[in-house]
Every structure is written in structure tokens, then in C-alpha cells.
Task: structure prediction
Amino acid sequence: MNTAIHNLRLAARSLHRWGGIALVALTILALGIGLSIAVFTVADALLLRPLPVRDQARLVVLWGAAPDRLFNNPLELSDGREFARGARTLDRAALFLYNGAAPLPLRDGDRVSRLRRALVSGEFFDVLGARPVLGRTLRRGDDVPGAEPVAVLSYLAWHERFNADPGVVGRQVVTYGEGTVYTIVGVMPEGLDYPNGTDFWAPVVPSMSPDALSLMAFYVIGRLAPGASSASAANELTTFLQRPGASSWQGQLHGVATSWPRLVIGDVRPALFAFAAAAGLLLLITCINVANLLALRGVARVREVAVRSALGGTRTRIGLQLFTENALLAIAGGALGVAVAAGAVRLFVAFAPPDLPRLGEVHLNTMALAGALAITAVTILLFGLAPAILTSRLELQAALRSDTGHSATRRSRVGTEALVGAQLALALLVLAAAGALTRSLINLQRADLSLDPSYLWIGELALQSEVLASPEKQRAMLKQLMPQLEAIPGVRAISPVVAVPFSGAAGWDGKPAAEGQSPQEAAAKPMLNMEVVAPGYFTTLGVPVLRGRTFTDQDREDAPPVVVVSQAAAQHYWPGGDPLGKRLNVGADFDRVVTVVGVVPDTRYRDLREARASIYFPLDQSFFPFAPTSLAIRTDSRTSAPISTIRRVIHETAPGVALVSVASFGTFLEGPLAQPRMNALLLAVFAAAALTIASVGLFGVMAAMVRQRTRELGIRLALGAAPGDLRRMVMRRGLTVASGGVLVGLLGTFLANRLLVPLLYNVAPTDGMTLLIATAVLLGVAGLATAIPARLSTRVDPLLALRAD
Result:
């Protein structure tokens, strides 16, 4: 025990004497270990940690898909139930509404708020094998006609909306629209909120009227039977969809089966793989750098070790002391790494998209700390044992020769420079990846929306059951309301819209047929976005008219049916031709004929990454079984001054209608930009850390070279060498090392960056401009790291240098 304490004291003193190198090594270890732990923590929460269900790998989600695979085709309720009952590849199966968790207005006294409701069949939780933390789950008997409406809360909603009240079971929530009273019967465990973002689950049948149920479509979730695979389940669904007696439309579909864990994780997996690769590279750079620093330190301590040996120190004793010093450094680096990891995890959570699956589970835990201990243990072996063994094996007589340090340095110089070049190559890999994601983010932010987002607000309406009774009543309410809202001071234009921006699947899609096309030819066309709009829609959103006209008040129910199409939709039906005056057959049986009167650009209203081909129908001529329930509002300024007036006018003009929420268009834009911003930011942090560590390594090697060649530099100065010549010699050597690392890094980048393709938008994985900028940054930092030692090389006093040995 006394010997161990004595060794620790000597180690602490030694590290204090070598303060500069020890501090740099400690910082590098903290960054490398800390960021690696942070990535492990995030990956553990989002990828590795099992979801709170039984045998998650056996769960699959099924739906139909068209041959073009541009659109998912869910099943009608009756078809979904028939398939679930007869499926041989599934042990058991359940259904859930295809559009996932939809916001539902709830009445709480005089206040109207929203929770996201997922409609599921009664067997849903039984299929998942999930157990509640409070109360019970849904049962098959909850999903039959006449059953009392019940609800099961998600863990997050229980905490945020109900303050984690243990007495929440038995409480009731009332929907604003239908007036449905849901009794809360249970709370599910943390981490289960599928469909993603669900606040509460409710059974399908008691939640919907029979007429509404006939319009709903569902996905199937099932547990694979023994010996069955996702492919066999998909084939069974294909056979069901193409069974005798199925409609011609269903006969065009084939089954798709996807692993449930993959759907829960979503598009987080490519980003996490990129972060994990970056963390691995950073940890490798850290190991190389610290090994280099300790090797340089070991060379400088050759004589110290030799003197200790000459004074009677055994090889074991000297090796143990050196091991203690390096191990103490590694342990301190691991401890600081935990602090760095905690900060990095908090940064991740702060910048992560709010709807990121399982985000609430991302925090340092025992698994993360175990990872820290494992990394630190490996670090101790690498940086503690190996240098100690190598240094303690020096030959006594050879080490005591005056020029041994220099000869050893000459032999090891190529090796240390090669390690620095490897660091720079790896740093370029991370830097180029961060640059590609940054350029992708910039492109996405600058994407042409084909509409004007300035001074534009989006409001969501909640309608009570008397207004929701029929689409006709909804349209009548909107016709009465719009003139009152347009007259409000500060409102430049206002129009109802079907869905809020970037809502993806929320909306209506279809495949109209051009006049003269058969239903089979129409089915071969891709799905188009269908919008029901008022005459002021295009003015409100700032969508320009390219040809023809938009809708007017004359496009009434008794007027000839008309539509406006987007450019891509026109190209689908009449490539190279003039769409004005052309006609489309629409409706379930293609029995309604409409005439094209205008052409507008393809907008990115529904999807930021892709401009959607769209067909617009006038509100008064709509045959859809719904009416728009959101509002687009263009004001005279960026302030929300008219919003309170709009809310009051709606309350006074349209009883049973409430404006639940209002947000600027930019607020909705933050949603699809959140994930790319997080990807770019986190990878930029890794790139900055890798660049810093690699440049420190280059600086350390060049500084050591200057220090170890002090005598040579002094002789050169004494013989008349100009200071500029010495600076150029050192700079040339440093930039040669950096250039070699850059060449190797560029070769690696051409291969590695292809893994980033799922995360990029309008940027090639080997984009030339990105690689040029990354190379310039790396060489610039390398030049700076070399310039300081180069400048120091000219400050050598020739007389002192000649006396050095």
C-alpha cells in the first residue's frame, strides 16, 4: 500500500513537471473519451436499448404499395380485419390508423388544448406484448359497438399533461369536436409512443361514427409466427390484395412488411451511424495523438530512465512507476471525459428534433458510465503499459551516450510523422462529412418553396360535432366566416387550407385520369396531392400563377367544374402540351369531369424535401368528404397583432368553432429543418474536435523536432544560415506531413462519404467544393500549427545550442 501511494505521489510530481504535455494529453483524452461516451449514450437510448415490448424483433408492420412505390396504400377496416384473422405468417395481428397520431382538440373547462390520439384496434397492446405502469391496456372488448370510450396515456403525456398523477386512472378527457368522453384506464411505460408522438391510444370503433369508419384506412401490425419472416408476411399480404373478387385498384398493389423497431427509430439510424463513425475516428485520433505525445515524452526521458537504472532501479520498478504516471493521466482523462459527455448529451437533447423517437430517454446512465470505464481501461493499457515497457527496456550504456537521444529521435521521427499524417487524414474524413451535411442544410434552407413565407401565419380550427356533421355544413361555415375575417384590419388575405405545412401524409392523394385514359392507365400514374382551396388561397400563400387563372367567386357549385394543376401534374398528363382547357376524370369511379383553367408551380407546402405535384379543387365545387379545417393568414407585419381579433371574430361568427393554435410559417419550417441542423451541428462538433486534436499533434511533433534538433539549428545559425531558411525548413517538413495526410484522407473520403447519402439534400457525397474547403481548412490549420515551432526555431542561441550536449 505504501509503495502504491509513493508511486502515485511520484507520478503526480512528474506530471506536474511535464505540465504542458500532460495538460494537452489530458484535454485530448477528455475530448476523445467524452464525445465517444456521448455517442454511445445516444445510440444506446435510440438504437441499442430494447423497446418496452416483448421480443421486438418479431414485430412487423404491413401495408399495400403501388408499383411505382411512391405512395403507401393502407387497408380499409374490413379488409384489415379479414387479413388479420386469416394470416398464417402472423401469430396475432392488430390495426392502427394509417396517418398515425393526429392532434385532437380537447375541452378542459373554457380552454381548448390538444393531445395526439392514435386509433388502434383492441388487440394492439396484446400484439406488442407491452405492459402498463398504471392501470390496464386496451382490450378486444373495448373495440366493439356500444363500448364506452376509453384511453391509455403515453408516459410522456402522463408526466407533462397530468403531472405524473398516480390517480389519473379513472379521470376523463372530453374531445371538443365530437364531445366524446374518454375514461383513462392506463399509462404505458417510458419509451413507448408508437405511432410516433402518440399522447394517448383509443379504440377504433367507439371513437368513430360508422360513416367515418368507412373512410378510414389502416396499417396492420403483427407478430411473426415461428418460422415466418417479413418477406413471407409481405407475400401473404400480396396474395390477399390480389385475391379473386378484389377491386382492380387493389389488384395493382403488393404487400410490404417492415420491421417495427426500424419504423420506431425512423431516419435516425443513418445519422447515428454517421455520429458513431465520427466518434470512432475521433477516438482513434485521440489514441494516436496521446501515444505520440507520450512517445515524445519518453524519448526526452531516456537519460532520466538510464540514470535511475544506473543508481540501482530495477526494470520492474521503473516500468511500474512509468505505468503509474501514464495510468493516472488516463484515469484523469476518463473522469473529465464523463463531464464532457454530460455536456455533449445535453447539447444533443437541446438541438434534437422535439419529435425524435425516445428523446426523453437520452441521458447518462449506468451503461454510459460502464462504457466510460471500458474506454478508460483500454486507454490505461494503451497509454500506461506499452510506453512503460518500451521505455524501461532501454539499454543503459547506449542511453548514457551523449547522442543517443538524437539518434533515437532520428529513428523514430518517420514513425511519429506518419502517425500525425494518419491523424490529419482521419480529421479530413470527419471534416469533409461535416462540410457535406452543412452544405446540404444550406441547400435545404434555401429550397424554393414556390410560395412566400413572409408575414404568413397558420391557424388550426377545432369544430364541434354540429359543425362536423357533414362537409356541406363545414363549407357553409367557412363561406360565412371568410368575409368577416378578411375585413379585420391588418389581415391582407386569408384562406382555409386542408393541412398545416410539412404535414406529410396529412392530406388527400389520388390518381385522376386524363380524358381518354382508362382506369388502368390512370393507375400507372403516381399519386398526386389533392387540395381543396378557396379563391383567396393562391394570393394568401403567395403562389404565382404561371398560366391561365385561379379560382373566383364564380366557381360555384352550379358552375362548370374546374381545377388548377401544378407544373409536374400537367407534365404527367400532357407532356409538352398545353394543359389549359384539358379535362380530367376524378372521383372514386372517375365519373366527374373537371376542366383545367390554370397552372401554378409545384410547392413544398407538404414536404420540404420534395415539391409535390398537385391538383387544386375550388371549395364550393368540392366532392371530398371533408373541408379544410386550418387557416392560412397573411398579415401586414410580422407581429401577431390581428390574431386575437381573428380568434374573437371566429368565436362570435361561428359558434362551435375555436381557433386552437396559431404559429408563423417559419415555426412549421423549423420541424423539417431540425434533424438536418442537428446532424450538421453534432458532426461539426466532432470535426472541430478532430481538427483541434490533429493540429495539436502536428504542433507537438514539430515543436519536439525543433527542441530535439536544437544543436543542429545552432550549428546552422553559427555557420551563417539565415533565420528565414530555418523557418522554411521547419514549415516545409510540417506541410509535407500535412499534405501526405490530406492525400490519404481524400482517398478515404471518396469511399466513406457515400454512407451519408440518406442524410444529404442536393449535395453529392464527393462534392468538389466541399472537399476543396475541407482541404483548405485542414492545410490552413496545419500551417498555423507548424508556423509557431518554425518561428521558435529562429530564436535558438547558437552558443547555448553548441553547449547543449
The first strand starts at residue 59 and ends at 65.
